[in-house]
Design goal:
Number of helices: 10
Strand content: 5-15%
Order of helices and strands: HEEEHEHEHEHEHEHEHHEH
Number of domains: 1
Shape: globular
Largest sheet: 8 strands, parallel
Number of strands: 10
Structural class: alpha/beta
CATH architecture: Alpha-Beta Barrel
Distance between the termini: 41 Å
CATH class: Alpha Beta
Strand order of the largest sheet: 8-7-6-5-4-3-10-9
Length: 298
């Protein structure tokens, strides 16, 4: 039996994130996107103030969000959205997200996630009330991230990215995208467990260093990632691959997002990261009902 096969036996379906329990055997969970940024590809600048950000987060909670993912730095790629997002300083990222997280933790019952690859930002966010770290680099950009997550007893979402946000869409190539992404996430899981992180989700990173065909193959073969022994998170919401398929702008991709979400849930996704919470919550409820239908419980 290989090292990978041995490690894959370690799995659990129940996570405790702050005061919220996520039972992945029961249903799909909705992660609402909250970009506290001026330049995100879909909603940059729309929720850049604390008041607007918190108001939108509470609205997403009312619409069915289980997790709010707060991001203070855009990862908009170079290409379809211009020159790509500029990296912001740790101090600026903290300035953007911490007041929002503090207020949300006081006013909301949802689990709060911090979308960052910087350990200093993650630590400040966890101290402010976040319970999940959504690291687009899968612990590969900041060597201190694993320790920070482990020391706070937080949950990690380890995502796959090829390159960096500014370079990832400059002709990414794979021999076998499913195999390579899966192996990369396996290494992230090993790194996380070695640091003492107990609750780990994996995300194949739709749109992060992938061409159209890569994204479609990852979603088609998502069931293979179940073998990693961790809940699967996925974020197809409004992504460029939908625009390519439908020839639609960012704000016209709801139906395409809904189709991608339904397909992902049927293929094993446990958490879907989306902008349109109300509509995608309904998609998830119907898809879950189909997935769990049985002859013994008509």
């Amino acid at each position: 039996m290989s090292t990978m096969e041995i490690e894959l036996q370690h799995t659990t379906s129940i996570f405790r994130c702050g005061g919220k329990t996520l039972d992945f055997s029961a249903r799909t969970y909705i992660m609402g996107v909250l970009n506290v940024t001026p330049d995100s590809f879909s909603d940059g600048g729309k929720y850049a103030t604390q008041e607007k950000a918190v108001e939108h987060a509470l609205q997403m909670e009312a619409e069915g969000a289980d997790i709010i993912d707060v991001g203070g730095e855009s990862t908009r790629p170079k290409g379809p959205y211009g020159e790509g997002a500029e990296e912001v300083s740790i101090a600026e990222e903290i300035r953007r997200v911490i007041p929002v997280i503090k207020e949300l933790s006081a006013r909301s019952a949802v689990a709060i996630s911090i979308d960052t690859y910087k350990s200093a930002v993650a630590e400040a966010a966890l101290d402010a009330g976040a319970a999940i770290v959504n690291d687009i680099s899968g612990l590969n950009f900041d060597t201190s991230m694993a320790h920070v997550v482990a020391s706070h007893g937080a949950t990690l979402i380890a995502m796959h990215i090829k390159g960096t946000p500014r370079t990832m869409q400059q002709n990414p190539t794979y021999e076998d995208v499913v195999k390579e992404v899966k192996q990369s996430l396996f290494l992230s899981i090993e790194k996380a467990r070695a640091a003492g992180i107990e609750q780990i989700m994996v995300d194949p990173g739709i749109g992060f260093g992938k061409k159209l065909g890569h994204n479609l193959l990852l979603m088609k073969n998502l069931r293979q990632f179940v073998e990693l022994g961790c809940p699967i998170a996925i974020g197809p919401s409004r992504k460029a691959f939908i625009g390519m398929l439908l020839d639609l702008s960012v704000n016209q991709r709801l139906e395409g997002t809904a189709a991608a979400v339904a397909a992902s849930i049927l293929a094993g996704a446990n958490v879907v990261r989306v902008h349109d919470v109300k509509e995608i919550k309904r998609v998830a409820l119907v898809t879950d009902a189909i997935l769990r239908a049985s002859k013994t419980n008509p």
